[in-house]
Amino acid sequence: MPSGAWNKAKLLVFLLVNHNFKTYVCVMQFMKYIAFMILATMNIIAAEISIDHMTAKSDGKVITIEWRPSIEKGVRTYELERTSTGDAFRSIANIEPKGAQTTYRFIDENALMKGGNNEQILGKMYSYRIKVIAFDNSVSYSNIVSVSHSVSGIRRTWGMIKEMFR
Q1: In this structure, are 84 and 23 located in the same domain?
Q2: Gap between the terminal Cα atoms of the chain
Q3: Is there a contact between 131 and 49 (Cβ–Cβ < 8 Å)?
Q4: Which residues, 6 or more positions from 149, have their beta carbon under 8 angstroms from its beta carbon?
Q5: Are residues 53 and 134 in the same domain?
């Protein structure tokens, strides 16, 4: 038996022999409180983050979103969200943190080209934000960046020709 556990057992016997049950209860409550505080401090960490740089760029084919945090502490995950035309933001990717000063890059290939009825979407505006989820499950959001995506005439024509043969 470890010496710490042995000392606790000796204290328990001493308190029970001396019929000082109230003191025993107080000591046990205090020990539970200390154990809870130690566990809470180890497992629950609020996020501390500062995103210095965030951009969204379209090349006519895909949209590339980049960001770089200068401070990244207590972040469990990044959730990249997208919206278009004022709709609600929807999650499109989860990215694990890699440490401060890392440049994160996500290529959004699904934002483009087709609408609900298989029609081409041209010149559509997309907005992105990062949902930061901490180890304590608290949530914060980055600034919103927007990009207008338009497909060149040549690429649009080539896409239509490829569609004819599918």
Answers
A1: no
A2: 73
A3: no
A4: 58, 60, 63, 111, 112, 121, 123, 124, 125, 126
A5: yes
Taking only the tens place, the pLDDT of each residue in 98-133 is: 988 899 999 998 876 554 444 445 557 899 999 999
Give pLDDT tens digits for 42-87: 445 567 888 888 999 988 788 999 999 988 988 999 999 998 877 7
Instruction: State whether 28 and 61 are in the same domain.
Output: no
**How many beta carbons lie within 10 A of that of residue 132, not counting itself?**
22
Average pLDDT in the chain: 75
Q: Does one domain contain both 114 and 136?
A: yes
Domain that holds residue 160: 48-164
pTM of the model: 0.61
pLDDT of residue 81: 95
User: CATH code at 139?
Assistant: 2.60.40.10
The two three-digit tokens of residue 164, written as one number: 């004819």
List CB contacts of 142: < 8 A, sequence separation 6 or more. 51, 54, 67, 129, 130, 132
**Backbone φ and ψ of 43, nearest 5°:** -100, -25
